[in-house]
Amino acid sequence: MMRKFGCVDPLVSPLYASSFLASSRYNFMSSANFARLYGSSGWSPSPRDRQPWLQIDLQRKYRIVAISTQGTFNSNDWVTKYTILYGDRPDSWTPYIQRGGNSTLSGNWNYYQVKRHVFHYAFTAKHLRFLPLGWNTESGGKIGVRLEVYGYSYVMAYDGDDMVAYAFPGGRSRTLQDHIALNFKTLEHDGVLLHSEGMQGDVLMLELRDTRLYLHISLGSSTVQVVEGMTTLTVGNLLDDQHWHYVTIKRYGRQVNLTVDSHTESTICNGEFSYLDLEDQVYVGGVIEPKMPHLPNKSNFRGCLENVFYNGVNIINLAEQKDPQIRFPHHQKPVQYACQDLQLKPMSFTGPNNYLQVPGLLRKSRMSVKFSFRSWDHMGLLMFTRFADDLGSLELGLSEGQVNITLQQPGKKLRFAAGYGLNDGFWHTVDLAARDNFLVVTIDEDEGSPLKITNVFAMRTGDRYFFGGCPKTNNTARCETTLKAFHGCMEQIFIDSEPVDIDTMLQQRWGRYAELLLGTCGITDRCTPNPCEHEGRCIQSWDDFICMCENTGYKGEVCHKSVYKESCEAYRLSGKFYSGDYTIDPDLSGPLRPFSVYCNMKAWTVVRHNRMEVTKVTGSSVDQPYLASVEYCNASWDEVTALANVSEYCEQWIEFACYKSRLLNSPSGRPYSYWIGRHGESQVYWGGSFPGVQRCACAINSTCVDPRFFCNCDADYRRYSDKGWLNYRDHMPIRRIVVGDTNRTTSEAHFSLGALRCHGDSSTWNTVAFTKPMYLKFPTFRPGTSADISFYFKTTADHGVFLENSDDRHRSFIRVELNSTTDLLFVFMVGDGILNVTLRSPEPLNDDEWHHVKAEINVKMARLKVDYQPWSVCHFPGQTYVTMKFTQPLLVGAAKDKQRAYLGCLRGLRMNGLPLDLEGKANAEEGVRRNCTGQCVNAAIPCRNGGRCMEGYASYYCDCNNTAFEGYYCHKDIGAFFEEGTWLRYNIRREAVSEEAQWAYWVDPHNFSLGYNHIGEEIEFSFSTTHTPAVLLYISSFVRDYIAVILKRDGSLDLRYRLSAFTDKFQITSLNVADGYPHFVNITRQNRTLRTQVDYMEPVKQHMSILEDNRFDSPKSFFLGRVMEVGDIDYEIKKHNSPGFVGCMSGVRYNIYAPLKAYFRPNETDPPVTAMGFLEESNCGAYPSIMGVVPLEEDPWYTGPGGLQRYTDVSIIVLLLLVLTFGTLFGLYTYLYRYKGSYRTNEPKSMESPCSGRALTERPRKDRSLPRIQEEPRSE
After folding, report:
1. Would you state the torsion angle of the CA atoms of residues 957, 962, 966, 969, taken in this order, to the nearest 10 degrees?
2. SS3 content of the chain, % helix, strand, coil (to 5)
3. Minimum mean pLDDT among 289-293, 655-659, 719-723, 801-805: which range?
4. Backbone angles phi, psi at 1089, to 5 degrees
5. Is the omega angle on the peptide bond into residue 942 within 30 degrees of 0, that is, cis?
6. Distance (Å, whole) CA 1191 – CA 249
7. Which residues contact residue 83 at a Cβ distance below 8 angstroms, ignoring those fewer than 6 apart?
8. CA-to-CA distance for 573 and 1220, rounded, in angstroms?
9. Distance of alpha carbon 1071 from alpha carbon 1077, whole angstroms
C-alpha cells in the first residue's frame, strides 16, 4: 500500500505474541496472538464474555491509515461489524469516528475474503483495541477475526523552548504549488507550528490559537495598488485533547485548502499574485532566534509533532539524521524523537442518569476537592457530597457557564457563583478547599481572583463524593439535587489532595458508576464546521446543536430557508396589494443575500441605483474613457442579476445628451461610448434599439437628425440626445456606462440611467409536459449538507419519478416520486442507508390538477409537503452526517435508464432556490413538450358530442358521463324504438326545492349540477318517425312550469315554455320532419334568449317576453314518448299526447340528464328512470359522427413503428417462400414434362382473411322501415 509521502507498512504481522491481549479466548487455538491476517486460525473470545475485546500493542506510535479483517480460518466465525479504539496508553482510548459521528465499521460476510477500510482521516496511536459489535450466528457461527493494520511514523517532542529550521535549497523558495502535511497533539490552547516569511511580504504561518488551527498566508502585498495579500483560514476546534490530529495544506496558485482530520476549508488568496516567495528557511514548532525567543504575541508549540512534510521533504527525518539543511537554536537541549505520554485518564459522562461515586475520608475537619471538566451544556451537576453528622451538604453545579456553589446547612442555604463562560468546550479546573466558616474556590488556577466564603457554617467530610449526577436507585448516601446530570468530560480528580485511581477503585469495588465511558473524552464540537447556513449562530450541547437565525433573513433548522419571497410578483400572489418597499430573495435558499426593492403591486419590481441623476462627463477619450459603475441600492450585481433571471421582463431607461460628443460612431467603426451589462459584456446598441445592431432609437424610427448616421449624437452637432428603453432581459442589469468622446474643446456629455424595472416570474411558469418515457438532463446537483426542492406537477398517471440525482454506483442519491395515486415519496441515501419520507394524501394526486411539492433535507431531518397538507417529517438521530456528493447528471422526468418514467406536466422546478430552465431542455420529438400540452390539445380524433377529453399525456380518453353518447370518442348514439303507448320517465328531483336551496341559487345560478331554478337549458336529441302528432319530450316541475317539444299533425315542430304564469310558443321548424328520416334538434336558452336548430339548418334566435320569468323552477320529471304526469296539464299537451310517439329517438340530453343512457347503461343500483311498454335499444339511423382518418398511433390495431416494420419483414419472408415454392414446382414440372410424366395436383382455393375491420369513417347503413327495425344485439 502506498501513501502520499512513501510506503505504509503492515504493523501487526511483525509483532511478537506478547503484543496481543484479549478479554478472553475460546480455546488455545483461538488465542489473541492468532489474530493475524491470512493466519491459520484466528481469535475468538469465550461465549461467556459479555464485553469481548482484542488489544494490540504496536510497541511505538504509528500513523494509522487502514485496517483489513478476515474471519477465523475455515470456519463459520466472522465479525460483521466492529469499532476501533486507539490511544497512546492501554488505559486511555479514543474511538475512531466516521463521517457523521458513527463509530461502527462494517465487517466480513464470510471467513476468507478480506474487508479493508481506508480511514477517511489518519490517526496516531501506539495501542489499538478491537471491539466486535456483531457477528455471524448461522450454522453455529461466533466471533472470529484475523486482522492487519497499516501505518508509518516519525515523531518529535517540543516543550516550548525547542525549534527546528529547515533551510531551503539555494537560500530561497519560489513555488506555484505547495503540499504540506504534519500531525500534532498537545494540551495547550496556543502554539506556532510553522512559520516562514519572504522579502516581498510573502508569509506562511500555521498556528494553534484557542484550540483552533489558523493558517495565515500571503502571496505578496503591493503598496502601489494598495493590495492587502494576507488571507486567513481557520478549521477545527478542541484540538487540545492530547490526541493526534492530521493536518494538510494544499495550494495551487491562489487556491488554498486546509484540512484537519476530516474537515476541509478552502479559499482564494487575496491579491493578484500566484507564487509564494519565501526566504532562507521555514521554522517548525516556533521561532527561536538570539534576539527573539518567540514571535511577538505568539507562543511556541508545546507537544508532539509527527511526519512533518514540506513539499515532499520529511523534516523530522532530516533532523534525526542531522542533515546540514536542518538548524537547531544555540544552547538547545537534546531533541527527543519520541512522544512521552501524560498519565491522564479522562472519562465521559454520556447518559441521562450518569454518575461516578468515589470514597472519601469520614469526619475530617478539612475538605479538598479538585478536578478538571469540559462541556457544552449550560447546566449540570459537577460534584455533590453530604457532610457527616447531618451537618448538611455541598453541591457544585454548572449553570449558565458558571460554577454555582450551594452550601446546605440545617435551617439555612448559602449560594455563591464563580467563573464565567465555562461551557465553552475547553478544559477548566475547579479547586475547592473548605473548613469551618471558610471556603475558597479557584477556577483555572487563577489564584489572583478566587471565590472566598467566610460565612458561619460547620462541616465534617462525608464518606462519599458524587460526580456528574446522583444515582437513581440504591441512593443510600442521599445524593439529592435539583440539577440535571452533567454531560461532558472529567479528569484529574483529587480528593483530599490524593488522585483518584479509577481503575484501582473500581477493581476494589470502592466506588460505583453508571453510563460512563472510562479512559476517553468523547466530547464533539458540533458547531465546527458551522452547520448553520447564511451566518446563523450555532449553539451546542453534549448531543445536539441549534441554529439561531435571528437577523439573518433565513429560518429553519439550519437557517436554510429564506423568510422572504423571491419577487414582488410572489408577494402579490400571496395577498400583498399595497405598493412600497419590500425585501426579496430571488435565489431563496441560495447563497445570495436578500435585498430591498420597491414593489409597485400593479406590475413592477423597482431597484434604484447611484446613476439615476444626470452625470456630466468631460475630458474623456476612447483610449481613456470615463467609467461610470452602477451601484444598485442594497444589492450586489449578482443579486440584481438573479432578480432579472427569474423575471419575465426587465427594462432600464437610458439617456445620453451630447454637446459635440459622439456616441456609437455609427453606422460603422469603434463606438465612442457604450454600456456593459450582465457577464461583463460590452453592448453597442442604445436605448430603443435591438441587440446586435449598432444603432439608436432614431435609426429604428427613421427620425435621426442626419439620416447618414444611426444616432442623433453621431451627427456631431451642438446639442442633441439619444434615449430609449433597454429591455433585452439577458443583458440586464447595466453594470457600467463608458463615455469616451468628451476631450475636444467645449465638448461634454450628460447621461442618466433609470431604475431597473422587472415584472413577472418566469421560473414559476417554466413548464414542460412529458408525453413519452424520457428525462431531461441537468448539471449535477451539488447541495452540500442541506437541500430543498420545490415544483408543481399535474398528471393522471398513478406513478412516476419527478427527479433523481445519484453518484456513479448509486450509493448516494435523492429521488422524489409519485408512488401511487395518493403516496408521494422522498427517497434518499445520503450517509445512513436508504431512507424515505412518505406523504399520504387524503385525496388523489393524479386528478390532473396542479399540486405544489416541497422536499427538504438537512442534518436534522428530512420532510415532504404537498399543497396545504401538513409536513411529513423524518427526524434524524443525533450525530447524523449528511453527504450529498453526486456525480451523475440531475435527471428530471424519470430515474436512471428511463425507469418509472413520469407522464404529465411539471413546472416551477427549483433546487436550493435556483430555478431550472425546463423549457430550454424540451424536445417535442423526444416526448417533452413546452407548456402543459398533452394529447388532448391536438388530438387526432377529438371527443365528440360534448365528451370531455381526459388527459393521459401519452394518450387520452373521452369522458362521456355527462353526454347522451358512449364509445371511445363519445361518438356512439344510445337510442330506443318506441311502440305506440310506450313512455319513459326520468325523475330529476323527488321533492320541491327548499328555501335554502333557492338562496344557494343566487350564489351560483349557472351551475347545472345544482338541479334547480335554472335560467338556462341545453336540450338535444335525434328522432325519426312517420307518425303524428306526438309530444317528443316533456319536462315537468313541482310548480306549473314545463318545457315541451311537440310534433304537430303537419309534421312541424313546436316548442312550449311555461315559466311562471305565461306560456311561450315557438316554432322550431315549419318543415315536415315526420318523413321517416333521422333529424337532429338542439335547443339552447340563456335567460330570455332562445336558439333552436334542426339538422344542419341555420340556428334561429328568438326572445321570450320580458314579462316572463327567466327561471325554470324545480324541475321534476323528464318524459319521452308520452306524458304521464299527474295534475293539471295544458290542453295543447293533452291534445298531442295521444296515442304517443311511435318511432326512434336517440342522443337525448337535458343539461346533464340523459334518460336513455340512464336506462340502457345504468351506472347506479337504482337509476331514477322508469319505462312502460315495448322499448328496444336502437341507434335509429341517427347522423353518425364523421370521423377523420385515424392516425397510426391512435389506431388500436396498430402496434407502433416496430409493428409496421415487423409486418413488412414478415411479408418479405412470405414472398420469398412463395417465389421459392413456385420455382421448385416449375422445376419439377419441367423435369416431369420432359419425361412425359403425368400428375394430378390439388390447388388451394383462395381464402378471405378472418380479420376485418370497418373504418370509423364508414357510415352505418340505414333501414328506411324504421318502425319495423329489429336490430341484432351489438357485440362489444
Report:
1. -30
2. 10, 40, 50
3. 289-293
4. -105, 130
5. no
6. 67
7. 95, 96, 103, 104, 105, 131, 133
8. 75
9. 13
